[in-house]
Amino acid sequence: MSALALLTIRGVVGRKLFRGAALLMVLGLVLAGLAFSAIARSGPDTFGNVASILSQASVLVTMMFTFVLGATGVFMTVGTIHREIESGQVLAVLARPLRRSQFLLGKWLGYALLLAALALLAMGLGFAIFGLAAGYQPAHPWSAVAFVAAQSIALVSFALLLATRLPPVVAGAGAVATFGLAWFVGILGKFGQIYGVAALQSMASVTSYLFPTDGLWRGAAFNLESAEFVAIMHARGAEREPVGIFFAPEPQPILAIAWAVAWTLVVLGAAVLSFRRREL
Amino acid sequence: MATTARPNYPLVETRELGKRYGKAVAVQGISMRVDAGEVVGFLGPNGAGKTTVIKILLGLTAPTSGSGWLCGAPLGDIGARERVGYLPELFRYPGWLTAREVLTFHCKLARLARSTWRQEVHEALVLVGLAERADHLVATFSKGMQQRLGLAVALLGTPELVFLDEPTSALDPMGRRDVRQIISTLKDRGCSVFLNSHLLTEVERVCDRVIFVEAGRVIANGTTSEMVGQPRMRLRVSGLSSEQRRALATAGARGDDGTWLTVSPDYSQVRLIEAIYSHGGTVESSETVAPTLEDRFVELMSGGPRA
C-alpha cells in the first residue's frame, strides 16, 4: 500500500494540473498578503477594528484556498483512477499479489497525505505572510490546518467513490457540486438561525450529516478567528445578525468531528466495495 | 533469472468455467488444464473470450459459474499470483517513471526479497533488450518498447507460469523473433507459458499444445502437431458445377476453394477422383500440401471437424 501511495504522490506532483494549482495558491497568498498589508496600514480610521477585519479576511482567503485544494484533489483523483483503468495500467498491478482494497486504499492514502501536506505548506506559508504583512495570527492555526485537510480528504474520498463507477467528468463535477451544495445549505442554515426559519435550520442539519464538509469548514473558520474578533462578534450578538453569516462562534462539537471521520471511513469503505465489484 | 522448480500440480485447471456480463455470455463451460513446463497457445477469433479467461484466471474478474485453480490454489487466491507473470493486452506504464523504476515497483508488488530487486530488474531488462534504456522515461518509449517493458514486468521473480496476451501485437519482425526466443528460454527454465496470440505462425513455432476457443467455448484442444495434422492431398478440379462439387463431400472432398478440392484424410483419393470423373469433371493436377495451424484455425472457424 505504501508503494502505491508513494507512486500516487509522485504521479500527482508531476502533473501540470497540480503545478498550476500550486502556482495559483502561491499567487493567491501573495495577493492576500498585499491586501493584509494594505488593511493594516490603513488603520482603524478606515476599517474600525483592524483585527476584526483581518480575522474575517483570513477566513475568506482560507475559504478560497480550500475550494482550490478540494477541486484540485477531486479532479486529480477521478482523472487518475479513470486513466489507470481505461489504459490497462491497473491490470498489470492487480495481477500481482495485491487486493483491490489495497490498491484503492494505497491511492487514497497518497491523495490524503498529499492534501494534508499541501494544506500544511500553503496555510503555513499563508500564516507567515499574514504575520509579516499585518502582524495577524489566527487563534489556533494548526487546528485550522487539520480541519481544512480533513475537509479535503473527506471530499476526495467521496470523489474516489464516484470515480469507481462514473466517468471522470461526471464524478468530478458531481463531487465538486455536492461540496458546493453542502456549503450553500450551510449558509442557508445560518440564515435560518438568524431569521428563525426552522425549516432552513433542519435542512442544514440533515445536510451536515449527509455531507459533513461544511461542518469541517466551520471548524476551520472558528480556529482561524482571533480571540479578539470572537469577543467582538459575541458582544454584538453577531450570531443573530446577517453580519454573522460567515462567523463561527463556537468550536465544532466533538460528536460532529467524530461523525465527519466516521462518514469519511464509510464512504471509503463504499468505494472499496464498489471497486471490488467493478469489471476491469 | 533462476530455473523454475517444476511443481507437481497443474498450473491451470478449470472446470466448466463461465462468465456472463448481464445477458451477454463471454465464456461458457471452459474446461482445460496447463501442466508444468508446457507452452500452451490459446487461440480464437476476436470476441471468443480469450482475454476474459485470462482475467478470470488472474482474479481480475470473477467467474459467474464453474471453478478453477491457478498454481494449485483456487481462483482468486492472492498468494498464487506471487508465482505468475502477466503481460496484458493493454500494456501501459506510468510515463513519468523510468523502465528501471517500473520494474522495481513491480518487484515490490510481487513481494520479491529486496536484496534480489537489482539483479531481477537487470536480468529482465537484458532479456527483453532494454538494458540500454533502463534509465529512460517510459514516456519516451515507442509502443514496441513499452511492450518489451511489459514483457520484462511479466518475467520478474522466476514465475512458474507466464500469461502473455498478444505479446507481439506492437512488435516488428525482429521483436517477434525476440519474443519467440524469450518463450523458448522460459520453457528451457521450466516456466509454463499461456500464450494468447493471433499470429498463428508464432504459436505454431513455440507452443507444445493449442486450445481453440470460439464464442466462449473450447472447440479443440491438442498438441500442436495433432492440431496441424498430416500433409494432405489436394486436387485441381474443373468441369463441375458448384452443386456437383458440393456433392463430392460424400466421396471424401473436405475443403473446396472453388479450384482446389482437399482430400479428407479419412477417404481414399482414388475414390474421390473416380467420383469427380463420374460427375463429368476433370482432375487437372494434384499436390501434397503441408497444413499449417492457420489452415486448421480457418477450418475450425468455418465449422470444420473438431477434436
What proportion of the residues of chain B form beta strands (DSSP E)? 25-35%
Radius of gyration computed on alpha carbons of chain B = 23 Å
Radius of gyration of chain A: 20 Å
Strand order of the largest sheet of chain B: 6-7-8-3-9-10
Q: Give a quick account of the main beta sheet of chain B: strands, pairing sense, barrel closure.
A: 6 strands, mixed
Helix content, binned percent of chain B: 25-40%
Give the low-pLDDT segments of chain A. Answer: none
Number of strands of chain B: 14
Largest interface, with Cβ-Cβ < 8 Å?
A: A-B, 19 and 30 residues
Approximate shape of chain B: elongated
**Which structural category fits the helices and strands of chain B?**
alpha/beta
What is the mean predicted local confidence, pLDDT of chain B? 87
User: In angstroms, what separates the terminal alpha carbons of chain B?
Assistant: 37 Å
* H/E topology pattern of chain B: EEEHEEEHHHEHEHEEHEHEEHEH
End-to-end separation of chain A in angstroms reads 20 Å
What's the tally of helices of chain B? 10
Count of runs of 4 or more consecutive helical residues of chain A: 12
Determine the fraction of residues in helical runs of chain A and give it as a percent range: over 70%
Description:
The complex is a heterodimer of chains A (280) and B (307). With 280 residues, chain A is an all-alpha fold. Chain A is globular. Chain A is built from twelve helices and no strands. By secondary structure, chain B is an alpha/beta fold. Chain B contains ten helices and 14 strands. In chain B, strands 6-7-8-3-9-10 form a six-stranded mixed beta sheet, sandwiched between helices. Chain B has a four-stranded antiparallel beta sheet with strand order 2-1-4-5, covered by helices on one side. In chain B, strands 12-13-11-14 form a four-stranded antiparallel beta sheet, with helices on one face. In chain B, a hairpin with a 2-residue loop joins strand 9 and strand 10. Chain B is elongated. The model of chain B has no long low-confidence stretch (mean pLDDT 87). The chains are: A mainly alpha (280), B alpha/beta (307). Chains A and B meet through helix 1 and helix 5 of A and strand 6 and helix 2 of B.
